[in-house]
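Attaching the record inline, Q. Sequence:
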Amino acid sequence: MELGPGEPAAGPWRVEPIDVFARSVTSAPPRGRRRVIAVDGRGGGGKTVLADRLSRTLGSAVVVHSDDVAWHHSRFGWDDLMIEGILQPLQAGEAVHCRLPAWERLGRPGHIDVPAETPTVILEGVGVSRRSLTPHLDVAIWVQSDFAEAKRRAIVRDLAETGRTEAEALLHWDEWEAEEVPFLLDDRPWERAGFIVATTSPLPHDPETSVVVSG
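Structure, as predicted:
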């Protein structure tokens, strides 16, 4: 696996059923009224898929995507919005009903909603386990992926979801990567991860029912 700049290789790897992994992730009591799990990793690395599978396995978890918080605001300078709009209400045991400033300014409909009775919230996105958010998290998962494969996946997704041409998608990725690489090099979230999961897997497994975990 070719890793991104500064990221050390994890391992040894083992295949683990997703329900066993979910029990491990939620084994410690939450520090607040809700358990907050961060699924972090590079763009295109498979974070969204892992977060959704973990949410389905847990059964009562809600996923909050950093892309929604960051929408038309900043690629990485959105941690204050995450803390004030999402994490502080969660820690107070309140429902989240968050409409971000850029949503209001540009007329995006809807809100980010987390019902008050939700026991577990999964934050998903590049930077959701950054230093400034760590005091608000119960556990962080780092998704380790092949650098080139993550780019390929991101381009395919961009072409399918946005209507960009291939040239536009490649330019968008290059602009993203120009900010992502120095951000991650400085923050080094893999060093704070309680679990590391490989999504460009070194071991054969069924990704619908299992994960490849380091350690």
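Residues 98 and 192 are 28 Å apart (CA to CA). Residues 14-60+118-214 form a domain with the Rossmann fold fold (CATH 3.40.50.300).

More tomorrow.
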